[in-house]
Amino acid sequence: MRLTIVGCSGSMSGPGSTASSYLVQADDAAGRTWSVLLDLGPGSFGALMNYMEPRALDALFFSHLHPDHMADVTSLQVFLRYHPEGEVGPVRTVGPVDTAERIGAVCWLTPEEVSRQFAVERYTPRQMLTVGPLRITPIPMNHPVPAFGLRIEGPGADGGTVTLAYTGDTDACTEAADLADGVDLLLSEASFQEGREDVRGIHLTGLRAGQLAAGLGDVADGVPDVDPEPAPGAPASANDGGGVPARTAVGRLVLTHLPPWTDPGVILAEAASAFAGPVEIARAGAVVDL
Ligand SMILES: [Zn+2]
User: Fold this and answer.
1) What is the pTM for the complete model shown?
2) Which CATH number does the domain 2-228+237-289 belong to among 3.90.79.10, 3.30.420.40, 3.60.15.10, 3.40.50.300?
3) Per-residue pLDDT tens for 200-244?
4) If you measure from the C-alpha of residue 148 to the centroid of ligand 1, how many angstroms do you get, rounded to a whole number?
5) Domain ranges of the chain
6) How far is the CA of 279 from the centre of ligand 1 (A)?
7) Distance (Å, rounded) from C-alpha 215 to C-alpha 179?
Protein backbone atom coordinates (compact mmCIF):
# COMPACT_ATOMS: atom_id res chain seq x y z
CA MET A 1 0.00 0.00 0.00
CA ARG A 2 1.30 3.40 -0.94
CA LEU A 3 0.32 6.82 0.41
CA THR A 4 1.11 9.89 -1.66
CA ILE A 5 0.54 13.27 -0.05
CA VAL A 6 -0.99 15.26 -2.89
CA GLY A 7 -1.74 18.25 -0.69
CA CYS A 8 -1.58 18.85 3.04
CA SER A 9 -2.08 22.56 3.76
CA GLY A 10 -4.68 22.96 6.50
CA SER A 11 -7.95 24.85 6.10
CA MET A 12 -6.77 26.53 2.88
CA SER A 13 -4.13 26.18 0.20
CA GLY A 14 -0.68 27.40 1.17
CA PRO A 15 2.57 28.58 -0.40
CA GLY A 16 4.09 25.11 -0.38
CA SER A 17 1.07 22.90 -0.87
CA THR A 18 -2.48 22.66 -2.07
CA ALA A 19 -5.23 21.99 0.45
CA SER A 20 -6.01 18.46 1.65
CA SER A 21 -5.75 15.48 -0.69
CA TYR A 22 -4.14 12.07 -0.24
CA LEU A 23 -3.75 9.28 -2.76
CA VAL A 24 -3.83 5.69 -1.51
CA GLN A 25 -2.85 2.95 -3.95
CA ALA A 26 -2.38 -0.79 -3.77
CA ASP A 27 -1.85 -3.63 -6.23
CA ASP A 28 -4.13 -6.64 -6.26
CA ALA A 29 -2.98 -10.23 -6.79
CA ALA A 30 -3.22 -9.80 -10.55
CA GLY A 31 -0.96 -6.76 -10.49
CA ARG A 32 -3.65 -4.15 -11.17
CA THR A 33 -3.10 -0.92 -9.29
CA TRP A 34 -6.14 0.43 -7.44
CA SER A 35 -6.27 4.15 -6.67
CA VAL A 36 -8.41 5.85 -4.05
CA LEU A 37 -8.28 9.58 -3.44
CA LEU A 38 -9.03 10.86 0.05
CA ASP A 39 -10.35 14.44 -0.20
CA LEU A 40 -9.87 16.94 -2.99
CA GLY A 41 -9.15 20.37 -1.51
CA PRO A 42 -8.46 23.56 -3.51
CA GLY A 43 -5.62 23.12 -5.99
CA SER A 44 -5.18 19.42 -5.40
CA PHE A 45 -6.68 18.25 -8.68
CA GLY A 46 -3.78 19.74 -10.62
CA ALA A 47 -1.25 18.27 -8.19
CA LEU A 48 -2.89 14.84 -8.54
CA MET A 49 -1.89 14.82 -12.22
CA ASN A 50 1.74 14.56 -11.09
CA TYR A 51 1.00 11.10 -9.73
CA MET A 52 -1.68 9.49 -11.89
CA GLU A 53 -4.09 9.94 -14.77
CA PRO A 54 -7.21 11.25 -12.99
CA ARG A 55 -9.56 9.28 -15.27
CA ALA A 56 -8.08 6.07 -13.81
CA LEU A 57 -9.27 6.92 -10.31
CA ASP A 58 -11.20 3.99 -8.81
CA ALA A 59 -12.86 5.86 -5.98
CA LEU A 60 -13.08 9.21 -4.26
CA PHE A 61 -13.66 9.32 -0.51
CA PHE A 62 -14.56 12.59 1.21
CA SER A 63 -13.78 12.76 4.93
CA HIS A 64 -16.28 15.62 5.12
CA LEU A 65 -17.63 18.40 2.98
CA HIS A 66 -15.89 21.53 4.19
CA PRO A 67 -14.59 23.27 1.04
CA ASP A 68 -10.93 22.86 1.96
CA HIS A 69 -11.49 19.09 1.60
CA MET A 70 -13.67 18.98 -1.50
CA ALA A 71 -13.81 22.17 -3.58
CA ASP A 72 -11.52 20.93 -6.38
CA VAL A 73 -14.18 18.37 -7.26
CA THR A 74 -15.15 21.10 -9.72
CA SER A 75 -11.93 20.47 -11.67
CA LEU A 76 -12.36 16.70 -11.59
CA GLN A 77 -15.92 16.99 -12.88
CA VAL A 78 -14.87 19.06 -15.90
CA PHE A 79 -11.90 16.77 -16.63
CA LEU A 80 -14.04 13.62 -16.54
CA ARG A 81 -16.88 15.08 -18.54
CA TYR A 82 -15.14 17.08 -21.25
CA HIS A 83 -11.82 15.33 -21.87
CA PRO A 84 -11.28 15.15 -25.66
CA GLU A 85 -10.65 11.40 -25.46
CA GLY A 86 -14.14 10.90 -24.12
CA GLU A 87 -16.36 11.26 -21.13
CA VAL A 88 -15.57 9.10 -18.09
CA GLY A 89 -17.78 8.15 -15.19
CA PRO A 90 -19.49 7.78 -12.95
CA VAL A 91 -16.67 7.40 -10.44
CA ARG A 92 -17.46 5.75 -7.14
CA THR A 93 -17.73 8.63 -4.66
CA VAL A 94 -18.29 8.10 -0.95
CA GLY A 95 -18.99 10.70 1.69
CA PRO A 96 -21.27 11.90 4.49
CA VAL A 97 -24.89 12.95 4.13
CA ASP A 98 -25.57 15.44 1.30
CA THR A 99 -22.42 14.64 -0.68
CA ALA A 100 -24.25 14.65 -4.03
CA GLU A 101 -26.01 17.90 -3.12
CA ARG A 102 -22.76 19.59 -2.12
CA ILE A 103 -21.06 18.48 -5.35
CA GLY A 104 -24.03 19.81 -7.31
CA ALA A 105 -23.90 23.14 -5.50
CA VAL A 106 -20.17 23.78 -5.89
CA CYS A 107 -20.16 22.60 -9.53
CA TRP A 108 -23.52 24.27 -10.29
CA LEU A 109 -24.97 21.05 -11.70
CA THR A 110 -28.35 19.33 -11.62
CA PRO A 111 -28.61 15.99 -9.78
CA GLU A 112 -28.70 14.24 -13.16
CA GLU A 113 -25.50 15.96 -14.24
CA VAL A 114 -23.79 15.08 -10.94
CA SER A 115 -24.69 11.41 -11.44
CA ARG A 116 -22.96 11.31 -14.85
CA GLN A 117 -19.56 11.67 -13.20
CA PHE A 118 -20.15 10.68 -9.57
CA ALA A 119 -21.84 7.54 -8.26
CA VAL A 120 -22.40 8.83 -4.75
CA GLU A 121 -22.68 6.57 -1.70
CA ARG A 122 -23.20 7.63 1.88
CA TYR A 123 -21.10 6.27 4.73
CA THR A 124 -22.66 3.94 7.25
CA PRO A 125 -20.61 4.36 10.45
CA ARG A 126 -18.09 1.56 10.86
CA GLN A 127 -19.37 -0.33 7.82
CA MET A 128 -16.34 -1.43 5.82
CA LEU A 129 -16.16 -0.66 2.11
CA THR A 130 -13.95 -2.53 -0.34
CA VAL A 131 -12.06 -1.02 -3.28
CA GLY A 132 -9.96 -3.71 -4.94
CA PRO A 133 -7.52 -4.94 -2.28
CA LEU A 134 -8.26 -1.99 0.04
CA ARG A 135 -10.70 -2.28 2.93
CA ILE A 136 -11.85 1.12 4.16
CA THR A 137 -13.80 1.64 7.37
CA PRO A 138 -15.39 5.07 7.99
CA ILE A 139 -15.64 6.13 11.63
CA PRO A 140 -17.53 9.30 12.72
CA MET A 141 -15.29 12.03 14.08
CA ASN A 142 -15.69 15.07 16.33
CA HIS A 143 -16.07 18.11 14.03
CA PRO A 144 -18.82 20.74 13.59
CA VAL A 145 -20.20 19.02 10.47
CA PRO A 146 -20.68 15.31 9.69
CA ALA A 147 -17.10 14.05 9.36
CA PHE A 148 -15.42 10.68 9.14
CA GLY A 149 -11.98 9.28 9.73
CA LEU A 150 -10.94 6.46 7.44
CA ARG A 151 -9.14 3.33 8.60
CA ILE A 152 -7.64 1.54 5.62
CA GLU A 153 -6.24 -1.97 5.44
CA GLY A 154 -4.33 -3.19 2.43
CA PRO A 155 -1.50 -5.37 1.21
CA GLY A 156 1.90 -4.49 2.60
CA ALA A 157 5.24 -4.57 0.85
CA ASP A 158 6.23 -7.69 2.81
CA GLY A 159 3.10 -9.62 1.82
CA GLY A 160 1.24 -9.01 5.05
CA THR A 161 -1.55 -6.58 5.84
CA VAL A 162 -0.80 -2.96 6.71
CA THR A 163 -3.08 -0.31 8.18
CA LEU A 164 -3.34 3.41 7.64
CA ALA A 165 -5.66 5.77 9.50
CA TYR A 166 -6.59 9.22 8.22
CA THR A 167 -8.38 11.41 10.72
CA GLY A 168 -9.84 13.97 8.32
CA ASP A 169 -10.77 16.86 10.62
CA THR A 170 -11.51 16.04 14.25
CA ASP A 171 -10.91 16.85 17.86
CA ALA A 172 -10.08 14.08 20.30
CA CYS A 173 -12.83 11.55 20.95
CA THR A 174 -13.32 7.85 21.60
CA GLU A 175 -13.94 7.29 17.91
CA ALA A 176 -10.62 8.86 16.94
CA ALA A 177 -8.93 6.51 19.40
CA ASP A 178 -10.73 3.59 17.75
CA LEU A 179 -9.59 4.86 14.36
CA ALA A 180 -5.93 5.12 15.32
CA ASP A 181 -5.64 2.07 17.56
CA GLY A 182 -2.45 0.23 16.57
CA VAL A 183 -2.23 1.33 12.94
CA ASP A 184 1.09 1.23 11.10
CA LEU A 185 0.72 4.85 10.00
CA LEU A 186 -1.49 7.55 11.48
CA LEU A 187 -2.07 10.52 9.19
CA SER A 188 -3.44 12.92 11.74
CA GLU A 189 -4.59 16.46 11.44
CA ALA A 190 -2.94 18.90 13.85
CA SER A 191 -4.50 22.23 12.97
CA PHE A 192 -4.43 23.88 16.36
CA GLN A 193 -1.63 24.91 18.68
CA GLU A 194 -1.71 24.49 22.44
CA GLY A 195 -2.40 27.82 24.15
CA ARG A 196 -3.40 29.50 20.89
CA GLU A 197 -6.77 27.89 20.10
CA ASP A 198 -8.70 26.80 23.17
CA VAL A 199 -12.00 26.00 21.42
CA ARG A 200 -12.90 22.30 21.52
CA GLY A 201 -14.81 20.02 19.16
CA ILE A 202 -13.15 21.18 15.94
CA HIS A 203 -9.48 20.20 15.58
CA LEU A 204 -6.57 18.43 17.24
CA THR A 205 -3.51 20.25 18.46
CA GLY A 206 -0.07 18.78 17.93
CA LEU A 207 -0.22 17.56 21.52
CA ARG A 208 -3.59 15.87 21.07
CA ALA A 209 -2.42 14.26 17.83
CA GLY A 210 0.59 12.92 19.73
CA GLN A 211 -1.68 11.57 22.45
CA LEU A 212 -3.81 9.90 19.81
CA ALA A 213 -0.73 8.25 18.32
CA ALA A 214 0.41 7.12 21.75
CA GLY A 215 -2.87 5.32 22.42
CA LEU A 216 -4.16 7.99 24.78
CA GLY A 217 -6.55 9.62 22.34
CA ASP A 218 -9.72 9.25 24.38
CA VAL A 219 -8.42 10.92 27.50
CA ALA A 220 -10.04 14.17 26.37
CA ASP A 221 -12.07 15.64 29.21
CA GLY A 222 -15.70 16.31 28.46
CA VAL A 223 -15.64 15.20 24.85
CA PRO A 224 -18.88 13.37 24.10
CA ASP A 225 -19.16 10.04 22.39
CA VAL A 226 -20.24 11.10 18.89
CA ASP A 227 -21.01 7.55 17.77
CA PRO A 228 -23.60 6.42 20.32
CA GLU A 229 -24.88 3.59 18.16
CA PRO A 230 -22.01 1.57 16.69
CA ALA A 231 -22.97 -0.76 13.87
CA PRO A 232 -24.09 -4.24 14.97
CA GLY A 233 -21.09 -6.39 15.57
CA ALA A 234 -18.71 -3.47 16.00
CA PRO A 235 -16.30 -3.99 18.89
CA ALA A 236 -17.15 -2.06 22.02
CA SER A 237 -15.02 0.98 22.62
CA ALA A 238 -12.18 0.33 25.01
CA ASN A 239 -13.32 3.06 27.35
CA ASP A 240 -17.02 2.21 27.43
CA GLY A 241 -17.98 2.09 31.07
CA GLY A 242 -15.36 4.61 32.06
CA GLY A 243 -12.41 2.23 32.16
CA VAL A 244 -8.81 3.12 31.55
CA PRO A 245 -8.06 3.46 27.83
CA ALA A 246 -6.40 0.39 26.47
CA ARG A 247 -5.03 1.37 23.08
CA THR A 248 -2.00 0.42 21.12
CA ALA A 249 0.39 3.12 19.97
CA VAL A 250 0.75 3.61 16.23
CA GLY A 251 3.89 2.71 14.30
CA ARG A 252 4.44 6.11 12.79
CA LEU A 253 2.76 9.52 12.98
CA VAL A 254 2.49 12.00 10.12
CA LEU A 255 1.06 15.39 11.12
CA THR A 256 -1.00 17.15 8.49
CA HIS A 257 -3.55 19.94 7.92
CA LEU A 258 -1.30 22.62 9.47
CA PRO A 259 -2.54 26.07 8.35
CA PRO A 260 -0.03 28.35 6.62
CA TRP A 261 0.12 30.62 9.70
CA THR A 262 1.44 27.82 11.90
CA ASP A 263 5.09 27.06 12.73
CA PRO A 264 5.49 23.33 11.97
CA GLY A 265 8.31 23.05 14.52
CA VAL A 266 5.95 23.98 17.35
CA ILE A 267 3.39 21.36 16.33
CA LEU A 268 6.08 18.72 15.86
CA ALA A 269 7.44 19.40 19.35
CA GLU A 270 3.96 19.19 20.87
CA ALA A 271 3.35 15.80 19.27
CA ALA A 272 6.77 14.47 20.19
CA SER A 273 6.13 15.38 23.83
CA ALA A 274 3.32 12.81 23.90
CA PHE A 275 4.40 10.21 21.33
CA ALA A 276 7.82 8.58 21.53
CA GLY A 277 7.68 6.93 18.10
CA PRO A 278 8.60 8.33 14.68
CA VAL A 279 6.80 11.58 13.94
CA GLU A 280 7.08 13.99 11.04
CA ILE A 281 5.24 16.83 9.33
CA ALA A 282 3.46 16.00 6.09
CA ARG A 283 5.01 17.42 2.95
CA ALA A 284 3.33 17.69 -0.44
CA GLY A 285 4.77 15.11 -2.80
CA ALA A 286 5.96 12.77 -0.07
CA VAL A 287 5.39 9.07 -0.77
CA VAL A 288 5.18 6.47 1.97
CA ASP A 289 5.33 2.79 1.07
CA LEU A 290 3.83 0.60 3.77
ZN1 LIG B 1 -13.28 20.65 8.36
Assistant:
1) 0.91
2) 3.60.15.10
3) 999 999 999 999 999 987 655 434 344 444 455 544 443 444 444
4) 10
5) 2-228+237-289
6) 23
7) 10
